[in-house]
Amino acid sequence: MIESLSWHLRSFMGFDMATFQGTSTYIASAELSEIVNVAVDLQKPLLIRGEPGTGKTVLARAVAEAMSLPLLTWHVKSSSKAQEGLYVYDAVQRLNDSRFGTGNVHDIKQYIKLGPLGQAFSAPHRSIVLIDEIDKADIEFPNDLLHELDAMSFAIHETGETVAAKQRPIILITSNAEKELPDAFLRRCIFHYISFPQPEEMKSILRVHHPHVEEKLVEQCLLRFYWLREQNEIRKKPSTSELVDWIGALVRAGVSIKCLEKELPFLGVLLKKESDIQALKSGAKRPTRY
Amino acid sequence: MFISFLYELRAAGLKVTTGEWQTLHEALERGHTLASLNRFYILARAIVCRTEHDYDRFDKAFLTIFEGFESYDALKDELSDWLKDAKTPQMLTDEQRALMKAMDFEALQKTFEERMAEQKERHDGGNKWVGTAGTSAFGHGGFNPAGIRVGGEGKHRSAVQIASKRLFQNFRRDVTLDTRQIGMALKRLRQWGRAGLVDELDIEASIAATGKNAGDIQLVFRPERKNHVKLLLLMDVGGSMTYHTHICEQLFSAAHQLVHFKEFRHYYFHNCPYDFLSKDVEQDERVPTLDVLLTVDSSWIVIWVGDAAMSPYELTAPFGAIDYFQRNKDPGLVWIDRLKKHFPRSVWLNPEPKEMWGRASNQLVRSVFPDMYPFTLDGIDEAISALRAKSFT
């Protein structure tokens, strides 16, 4: 009733209640905040892709903070199974309890440990689930989650219980494009690619992280940073988080702007690959041979 | 006109389904566009595109349909009409249908007129998408388009302008095979087995052991189930293979992504393997082929990738290698045969179409290496079936 009322109110007013516009520590582009709000309103999982270091994972934290909802994070690893996000049955504990007479062995429920998705489904309040780096897992992993994400419910076989979402959680998924995700999965998601920030946008991001750093120094850093990103010899391009660290290091060491014009101190903060540093130093183009 | 947008998107190669189209409807119904073409652009792109590789195609389709619509007002009436019909498109009366057609024509005409205008301006030395955001798309000469990109603020740029820049052009990939498809094919190579660290609780066995132990708990552990396949990729690079670089990269990244291979190695060769293989495409870091034969045992699965296109003497003559450093006493064919015999489970994928396989060097290679398959999805499937058959004998 209330939901339908608010829906009518919204359509009457002609716009949706804007809920996310970035936070004081997270600068979201107008585009990104718009998409977050659409995904929230349409109750679709939001799939975020982008270069490493463009703030994919941090986005979930920012959304949770802005909407003051609890955040449940599921870090996916190569060995992760879809089931683990729902629940895990702790058989060892149960065996142990039966042996030593501790706990109530007949109450299987005690031994069901809900995973991040399971917790979000069963919680009485709305929550945000971050499925981080979904592409790390097995190639079938996303497919195994299709049903649960569609129906927002799952069954616990050990107890015969069905856990259905009381409040559909907001689901954010990040991917590094290590693996291509299945079409059936992609079709169900709202997709957004975070493109690398333009210098202007980068400036406002840096202002959040280093509010007291001289404007001129920041500009010189940006100049060098974007120049570095354009060098073809560099395989692993430095990203936002590396730039933030680099400026931090420069400030702490008290490097002057003049010095920055001539050289690149603390290069290791920006470039993580030995071969990239070598390539930059020697200035030699990588040979191509046919 | 919105339906034509759907078909334009599909014609552009985006796999837009009814489900996604309905989601877009729903988003519009719920007022997410806020009467702005910009927002409609962002919204539609988020719903319709599945990867950033789709962005460029989306931009093109968007331009085709919405080019010339500068303000949302022009769209508004059609949008509301469309929304009215959105839920039950099959209930359209003939009258309404005629109305829609008429609008389509109007839209077309408008675009046409504006194209004409553009033609004129171009003669004047102006540029098409010059102008400040929110005003006419056809600005006056003297402005630098790059200036707009820097100065324009995201909120005020028109969607058509954004689309026309086609910022995501680089992401586009027109490939017949995608990494996922290759990955799925390679996955069939897996062989499961339990070996190594004993760290997984075997519940069934534990219960059985506990029962035998008069109820006193006895835990049984076993090694985790793992894929035992070790995969070696041997890839021909350079020369005629340059045309096939992309497809080789795809295979490589698909194999690399399947983290579940127990071991994965790759070496490169130029045309034919001789005394040395190399670790990098540039062939700077060389490894003696004999070392590879010593360290990589016959349990490995080997996939060769090459077009087997070279001068026949590179295969038959001693010192016939195209690269001087090889100084091979044994002709190339002997090396191929040696490797083939060392690895009973090996297949050769050839990116060239089968019609080209008649060349002499190809026939020579196949005389010692008959398991050659075309580098297509079907070919890979066939090759993997052949490998599987070998692993069970």
Keywords:
heterodimer; A: 290 residues; alpha/beta; Rossmann fold; 2 domains; 5-stranded parallel beta sheet; two-stranded antiparallel ribbon; 9 strands; elongated; disordered N terminus; disordered C terminus; B: 393 residues; 3 domains; 16 helices
* Portion in strands of chain A: 5-15%
The quaternary structure here is heterodimer
Taken together, the total number of domains of chain A comes to 2
What is the number of helices of chain A?
Answer: 14
Class by helix and strand content of chain A?
alpha/beta
Rg of chain A, nearest Å: 24 Å
The radius of gyration over CA of chain B amounts to 30 Å
DSSP E strands of chain A, number: 9
Distance between the termini of chain A: 70 Å
The H-level CATH homologous superfamily of the largest domain in chain A, spelled out, is: P-loop containing nucleotide triphosphate hydrolases
Global structural class of chain B: alpha/beta
How many DSSP helices of chain B? 16
For the biggest β-sheet of chain B, the strand order reads 4-3-7-8-9
- Dominant shape of chain B: flat
Which helices and strands occur, and which strands form pairs?
The complex is a heterodimer of chains A (290) and B (393).
Chain A: H1 2-13, H2 30-42, E1 46-50, H3 56-67, E2 71-75, H4 82-86, E3 87-89, H5 91-100, E4 112-114, H6 116-122, E5 128-132, H7 141-151, E6 153-156, E7 161-164, E8 170-175, H8 183-187, E9 190-194, H9 199-209, H10 215-230, H11 240-253, H12 257-262, H13 267-270, H14 274-282
Parallel strand pairs in A: 1-8, 1-9, 2-5, 5-8
Antiparallel strand pairs in A: 3-4, 6-7
Helix pairs in contact in A: 9-10
Chain B: H1 2-11, H2 18-29, H3 37-48, H4 55-66, H5 73-86, H6 94-123, H7 145-151, H8 159-165, H9 179-187, E1 192-201, H10 203-212, E2 221-227, E3 230-236, H11 245-257, E4 263-269, E5 276-278, E6 286-288, H12 289-295, E7 301-305, H13 313-316, H14 332-342, E8 346-350, H15 360-368, E9 372-374, H16 377-392
Parallel strand pairs in B: 3-4, 3-7, 7-8, 8-9
Antiparallel strand pairs in B: 1-2, 5-6
